[in-house]
Specification:
Layout lengths: L4 H10 L2 H18 L4 H22 L3 H16 L2 H10 L2 H25 L3 H16 L20 H26 L2 H17 L7 H5 L5 H30 L4 H24 L7 H12 L4 H20 L1
Amino acid sequence: MIINEFAITSNLKKMKIKEYFQLQFKIINRKLTDFGFNPIIGFLTIFIGFIGLSIYLFSKTEFAEYIFILIALSFISKLSEIKRNDFLKFAFPDKAYLVIRIVENSTVVLPFILFLIYKQIFPSVFILTTITLLMALFNFNTTFNYTIPTLFYKKPFEFTVGFRNTFYLFFIAYFLAFMSISVGNFNLGVFALLLVFIVSLSFYSKPENEYYIWSYITTPKGFLFEKIKIGFVYSTILSLPILIALGIFFSSEITTLLIFQLLGYIYLATIILAKYSAYPSEMNLPQGILIGISLLFPPILIGVIPYFYFQSTKKLNNILA
């Protein structure tokens, strides 16, 4: 059955904000049903799981509030995808588009904000609320004629595209690192460092065209090694200013900084392997659950990374064999 794209676009232009959110709700219900969940049971399971995992996280580490914010921002980053927002801008007037972006972002982070309020961690509430609104209010038009220069032109795709779409988040990270040094808050500096990595992880959320993989002319193992190497090099370029600054002003915490830098690399490698284990599709719910559990319990990566690696090589064999 062939769907008329023009007819779909015309119908979207007539759609009201309320109807848009009703449609999104139906899509979520459909996805839960496809995964074998009754929608009511699915939402209840998500709610109970969120509360349980949040309590567990805050009981295990002093950095829980910063990890919590990073997880929230990782969900919001999915809503900031350029093509998606260009489509919304085309389908809705400016005011309606702005309302949709604010409501979507706010809905996603609301459980995180409510839990932080419950824990009475109000500075983190302020940080998360501010970043959420900034990500909704400041969307950079892809039709802007000026091309933002990057350091990533030699190995294009994820970091070239990703940096140009989210470069303002790195300024936020550098500002938070500066504030960390100014007020002597080391934890805030660690959060700034992790923010660089979480934004870098978001660059790998979308699968590229098969041509970009085929052009490497190597084995699946060689391709994955090259992708991970590029990710490490480019994430180092972005995180190094924060790492050096914090290392100078918090010299007694250099070991802790290096541990978090290492964790950033490990999770970056995990995301890259997860991406290609689902290729040419996007990462699915089971993969997301595995990654989410590994954030709360890093030792599980010992099994998760090899699993994603073997799945990735199987998928890439069809292209690079």
